[in-house]
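Retro notes
What went well: the complex prediction finally ran end to end.
Inputs used:
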Amino acid sequence: MAKNSKVKKSDSIDWDYSVALESTDHISISQEYKLFIGGKFVKPLSKKYFNSINPSNEKILSKIASAGKADINKAVLAAKSAYDTIWSKMDNAERGKYLYRIARLIQEKSRELAVIESLDGGKPIRESRDIDIPLAAAHFFYYAGWADKLDYAFPGSKVSSIGVAGQIIPWNFPLLMAAWKIAPALATGNTVVLKPAESTPLTALKLAEIIQESDLPPGVVNIITGDGATGELLVNNPNVDKIAFTGSTEVGKMIIKSIANSKKKYSLELGGKAANIICEDASIDQAVEGIINSIFFNQGHVCCAGSRLYVQESVSSQIISKLKNRMDHLILGDPLDKNTDIGAINSNEQLKKINMYLDIGKKEGGDFYQSKHTIPKKGYWCAPTLFTDTSQSHRIVQEEIFGPVLAIQTFRTIDEVIDKANNTPYGLSGGIWTDKGSKIFQVSKKMRAGVIWANTFNKFDPASPFGGYKESGIHREGGLEGLAPYVNFDNRTL
Amino acid sequence: MVYNTTIDQVGCKERVDRIFSRSIKKESKIWALNTVLSMIDLTTLEGRDSSGKVKQLCYKAAHLHDKHPGLPKVAAICVYPSMVAIAKKSLERTNIKTASVATGFPSGMTNLNSKIEEVKFVVEEGAEEVDMVISRGHFLSGELNYVSDEIAKVKTACGRAKLKVILETGELCTLDNVRKASELAMHSGADFIKTSTGKISESATPVVVLTMLEAIRDYFDKTGKKIGMKPAGGIGKSKLAIQYLVMVRETLGNDWLTPDLFRFGASSLANDVLMQIVKQDQGNYQSSNYFSLD
């Protein structure tokens, strides 16, 4: 992207930032990763492997074991045995110590984890360094604190652990999602079999190394890699007591169907199509920045992304022109460049899906704008994109794209925009921008979404529960509420 | 005029943090360091200023570090009214501008007539740029028309001299006020808007500078007129100065990266930038004793 800065002959200045690459000489990625079962890395019984690639240049990073049915059995039995013999019997405070240790190790290795996250998933180093990895450590710290306070978590109730949790996580925040899943499960006394996403397994496997280093009893956390079929086998394994899944609503529905006739509990964090509402009295420049953060953060690979923008008509032309200007100042390119704002699309498959929606949007007649970026020749890329003049009837307004694509509508009254915001099967998140406090309460009370941000967007904290209404999921992750999906409520009168 | 644009302090700070996290290295850093030098208004505004001191500063302005050829000169020398003639004479054979503070600097607590007289005086003495202060008391008591009229009259008195309007943002309390004062100054005839006098403890802060740059952008979008910006006070390190260039680039675009539209009001910044430039060239830092203290 950045060339030599110079003053051109025409006297117009062309000051670009020189490339500022984060170094990779401090990281180690093995050429081959096995399955992490019973505290050891073991060869897959399936004898199958797949490649994990760097989506920004399509180079192979490592060969990853693909877990088959026998491998999953083995992992679940390891988790069951660890649960029965050690973990469920351990003193709560002792369990907490392990979580604190894992949290500290993540902090110690944060630079390596950030670089690997950006290599494997394509996200800018700025985000993996400043958001993903610190938040992952924060989640372990937070739930470590709950481990010895469970008796006080739910006043009037006694709680106990469930057993073996089968956890399946997505590719958009690989290590962070692993932390969201593992930390509350362990704090409440459960053991875990975790399956990271096929395209981004590396930081979960680095986490397995950290877990080894932390001396966590073998089998308490098992990490098995593979594709959707591996996930399905995990969901259907009879010794799994609870399923925790983050991913698409489509797969979430399949999971509910397949475990309907079982004892299994489940918690699901699924898709979204969040409404981000900009009122005419909002602080305009900060709102524009908020829109950038709501839809172009992590290339739009965010379930709570503000992918439906509603702008009050009186400020819409101003907002859209400022937004286009701001988009042109984003820097798209090498995820390891510290100045990169927009990294690579996570996989070829996802890029195809995004491009399909771009075609649909153009055919539907939305006014199309894409930022002026040079797209690298190798790898998977999508420039930040706007569709203006859209309506509720557009498919790009209705369906989750999971990419840097924003559909913009105008509105006139608050009642109108609340109705439209709620006119979706999803209900994960939402945003409201106004200088008027009363309007924030009016809108946030009526919007049917699990998380609503006012005058900001995409802010996360381990103490804050996250999860959806309607088809965006069931149960919450994070906060006190995030403990509930991992416990049985044993209300007995003795 | 209706001034109803609000600024969200938290959001503004977040944007600043993101701008300041840009990593400026290699060629882009060298270009930035040279550009910073060329944008400096080398300033001395003290009661003990003498003709000797001003002459020395003027020499420095034109000869920043002659051991290192090819360096730009600073943009201007900024002095008190009584020093304008000396500065003007000392800068005769350079293209460095002579700037003077005026209008009862730094408090502005005098009557309009003497402000106008002072402006006429410095222009007659040869000042090509006039740095005025706004009447913050009138602004805060809501007398926006008074403030606007005052700026307009000073602008007339400036004649061909450029007018920089100092908002003294450290006394305006809120970013909403900074925004309002910026718009007011631009609509009343400012060629530049400037943050501070440097005479109170709070001078240019990043959120204030960003708020003013955004006001300049909106004014440009509305009128097509390019207004300049001058953060002043508290900018002593080249790293911060470069971060401000990034802020200008990402808010107003590369067009504003010229001394015609962006200045730093600073006294110690030049030497820090020089030290960085020599380091980029030679690979190691030299002691501060190698850089002249004028």
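What we learned: Chain A has a mean pLDDT of 96.
What to try next: split runs per interface for comparison.
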